[in-house]
UniProtKB/TrEMBL annotation:
This is Putative phosphoprotein phosphatase. It comes from Moritella yayanosii. One of its GO terms (molecular function) is protein serine/threonine phosphatase activity. CDD domains: PP2Cc. SMART domains: PP2C_SIG, PP2Cc. Residues 9-241 form the PPM-type phosphatase domain. PANTHER family: PROTEIN PHOSPHATASE 1L, PROTEIN PHOSPHATASE 2C. Gene3D superfamilies: PPM-type phosphatase domain (3.60.40.10). InterPro entries: PP2C, PPM-type-like_dom_sf, PPM-type_phosphatase-like_dom.
């Protein structure tokens, strides 16, 4: 049983080495133990706006419900409200052009981690050198795997691997998946856009997470993705779980991480 746990997080977003616009957005709300990564799609004035609208709407909901208490239903409603807002924005400002965003959200309530997601932004658990994907991509290739058309190995290299089947802001009726699990002392929880997983295999991600310091581990992930060429925007949030008396000690200047411009 966990007692007096401490959570430490590190988040960073980078435009990458190829694209000129960063369509990713992130939210760190440690006061409520909530973290979000959103990956926009649709280009300038579409994807970047959609992901930020999603983040802003969730942030507003958290602020409004912080006193009475956050629940899974509150977080789902925040995402559904953002879905409506993005669709309305597309109709009024983009002449019907589709703007959308994937999402992965982590909320730690007591000793339980809750994940909400839509699209192919992912959530992972890293514990005792073992990396496991918690979320399941809403993608065309995953549907083919489910149908037995592709193996998991074939899906990893499939040319349509970036075709997603679910996103916020695309259709009015959107399903947001949810899964929960107990947290474990010593584990790290990773939220990321597909800009990270598109460059790094699970084995490469696990290798970068060997470091106990959450800032060093998160920075190593970003460096590794950029070193691979970072063809897409790269966004990640890393959350570590430790005992209160074992929480890492950080100086203020430790929190300043170069953006690899």
């Amino acid at each position: 049983m966990l007692t007096d746990i401490a959570l430490k997080s590190f988040g960073q977003s980078h435009v990458g080495a190829v694209r000129k616009i960063n369509e990713d957005s992130l939210l760190e709300y440690p006061e409520q133990n909530i973290w979000v990564v959103a990956d926009g799609m649709g280009g300038h004035e579409a994807g970047d706006v959609a992901s930020q609208m999603l983040i802003d709407t969730i942030n507003t909901y958290i602020n409004e419900h912080a006193y009475h208490g956050i629940t899974i239903n509150v977080l789902k409603q925040a995402i559904l409200t953002a879905n409506e807002k993005i669709i309305a924005y597309s109709h009024s400002q983009l002449a019907g052009k589709t703007a959308g965003s994937t999402i992965v959200l982590l909320w730690i309530d007591g000793y339980t981690a809750h994940w909400l997601w839509a699209g192919d932004s992912r959530g992972y658990r890293f514990y005792h050198q073992d990396l496991k994907q918690v979320t399941r991509d809403h993608s065309h290739v995953n549907e083919l795997v489910d149908q037995g058309v592709l193996s998991a190995e074939e899906a990893e290299k499939h040319p349509m691997g970036n075709v997603i089947t679910r996103a916020i802001g695309v259709v009015e009726d959107i399903d947001v998946d949810h899964i929960s699990h107990p947290i474990v002392e010593g584990e790290m929880l990773l939220l990321c856009s597909d800009g990270l997983t598109g460059e790094l295999s699970d084995a490469s991600i696990a290798e970068q997470l060997q470091q106990q310091n959450v800032i060093n581990a998160g920075s190593s992930l970003m460096h590794a993705a950029l070193g691979k060429g970072a063809k897409d925007n790269v966004t990640l949030i890393l959350v570590s779980v430790s005992k209160q008396n074992q929480i890492e000690s950080f100086k203020d200047d430790d929190l300043t991480v170069p953006l690899f411009s």
